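Before the break, one more example. Copy the sequence into your notebook; we will annotate it together after we see the structure.
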Amino acid sequence: MSDTDTSAGLTVGQTVPLHLDSLAVGGEAVGRHEGMAVFAMWGCPGDEVEVEITEVAARFARGVVKRVVSPSPDRVEPKCPHFGECGGCQWQHISYPAQLRHKAALVREALTRIGRLPEVEVVETVGMERPWGYRGRTVYRAAGEGFAFGFTRHHSHDAVVPAQCPIQHPLAERVRAALADILPRVAGDPADRAAVYKLEVGASFADERAMALLVCEGRPEFVISAAKELMAEVPEVTGVCAARQRGPNAKRRSPAELVAGNPYLTEQLGEGRYRVSPDSFFQVNPRQGARLAALVEEWAGVKETDVVVDAYCGVGAFLLPLARRAKSAIGIESDESAIGDARANVRAWRRRNVKLYRGRVEHVLPRLAHREVQADIVVLDPPRKGCGAIVCEAAAKLGPRRILLVSCHPATLARDLRTLTDHGYAVRRLQPVDMFPHTWHVEAVALCERL
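Here is what the structure looks like once it is written out:
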């Protein structure tokens, strides 16, 4: 957009005074200028600020807070000195109780505006007692051609290298620091330095063990030496893997290949323990994940005569606890790594009443419905894009008395709940859970019952 583009008297580069009164999906605060919504990054509801306009569209504008004239009572000093530069957190400048209030408001607004479900009660967000050091899995980005690892800047591919990230598991930070020291010793060639793109670390809160994965262009020779030195320097690292990626900004990498040690971590949600491979999804925040799993189990209310279907079952975190109470259980998962872990976890839990299907849920679930499979409880825990109409319709055709929808995005949550209500289900309860403190992201679980 050029500097001559205007709307509601706004131009790109202009600085305007604003009162900020809410927060939006994406983390921006929202105010109004002559009736037009202005989304301001790094703002806090209740602030009086000056905002520099960076984008003007027909119905809204975007900008960045340049000066806080009068701070909100909810504004606090960020814990991380890189806040506002690093793209990992968006809300460190907002008090934690206020974050929880605003996350519930994001869900409530989506249900009303997108789902057309204003009657659904959204209760207070379940937060953490200590909302720091909660991330058990993280991806660090290589900074430049060196071996420092950090996080991407806000709206950029460039890396910021913090001395310490306060939301990561401390063991993951130790792995990052150790590799930054080890790699220059084992890889002196400049071409080797440029070949390292990312470092992925999984750190288990259950066992205080970690697994590291280096993402590189091809397979540099120094990876084996680096793995051995890392496991010697940080004994809690029980395995090191490697993966290939075509270019530093590619969206996908190859499957993980074991370099040294054990490729699996043991994770825990409540009393349940699970094998998790480096390519398998698991809750980033296991402490809150345990609360989420307990909520799903409680609301499902499984009886010993029930058939349970868990779509998007992953490694079995929801499936296995429900299967303990059920007559039989079906899990559906498309990811090869996750379905392998699920099979191992079914064996470890000694569950003979579980059947696993590998395939895309939008393909498998309609086939089950076409075969007139009947279910009593259905759990839907889709990725950020949500279930979509095909999956929601198929879930309803199974005829369950209860459908539990677990969502990590308010907009797709609202859309999917609207579809389920259109197919004869009513939303009885809805609980936001804060899985990602100091970011705008919010998880929620909804209980739907057949009318």
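The domain at 285-450 is CATH 3.40.50.150 (Rossmann fold). The longest strand covers residues 60-70. Try to locate both features in your own notes.
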